[in-house]
Amino acid sequence: MDKKENTVKYEYFDVTADVGFRAYGGTLDEAFGNAALAMFEVMTDTSRVKPLIKRDIQLESEDEQALLYDWLSELLFIHDYEGLVFSQFSVKITPGNSGNIVLHSKIWGEEFKQSNHEIRIEVKAVTFHQMEIKKENGYMLQVILDT
């Protein structure tokens, strides 16, 4: 990664009928938080999402890619079933039992209201298609969302 990428939180790339993004971070924790931010930015303007509701999430997966998929899928599930959108993410990833890895997170947001929040693209699912996690002077996570 060059110096420019160290200040970029995420960017989008063209994918037929879907939305792809690359999230960046100096640490894996930061990159996972920026991936969550990028996903919610697809759905609405996250700068207008107030941190009024806090949720704690803990997930355990067999590897980093599975954890990324599970993380974004869990956030999408909360969005779909509770009608919440989030704009702040604190993530801590640690080794778990039996070689697994564990994600502990605190997320903040609020109930989605059309009067306050822009409606952008509906995200149907997170995919494993072309998912990548690269470490080189920081982290880059590539994700494609089914829209």
What descriptors fit this protein?
three-stranded antiparallel beta sheet; disordered N terminus; Archease, Possible Chaperone, Chain: A, domain 1; five-stranded antiparallel beta sheet; single chain
What's the topology here?
Elements: H1 3-7, E1 10-15, E2 18-25, H2 28-43, E3 53-61, H3 64-82, E4 84-95, E5 101-111, E6 125-126, E7 132-135, E8 139-146
Antiparallel strand pairs: 1-2, 2-8, 3-5, 4-5, 6-8, 7-8
Helix pairs in contact: 2-3
Description:
The model is unreliable at 1-5 (pLDDT under 50). The chain has three helices and eight strands, in the order H-E-E-H-E-H-E-E-E-E-E. The protein has one domain (3-146): Archease domain (Archease, Possible Chaperone, Chain: A, domain 1, 3-Layer(bab) Sandwich), CATH 3.55.10. By secondary structure, the protein is of the alpha+beta class. The strands form two sheets. Strands 1, 2, 6, 7 and 8 form a five-stranded antiparallel sheet that branches. It has a three-stranded antiparallel sheet with strand order 3-5-4, covered by helices on one side.
In short:
The protein has about 150 residues and is of the alpha+beta class.
CATH homologous superfamily name? Archease domain
- Mean pLDDT, to the nearest integer, reads 93
State which percent range the strand residues make up.
35-45%
- The assigned CATH architecture is 3-Layer(bab) Sandwich
Helix content: 25-40%
Order of helices and strands: HEEHEHEEEEE
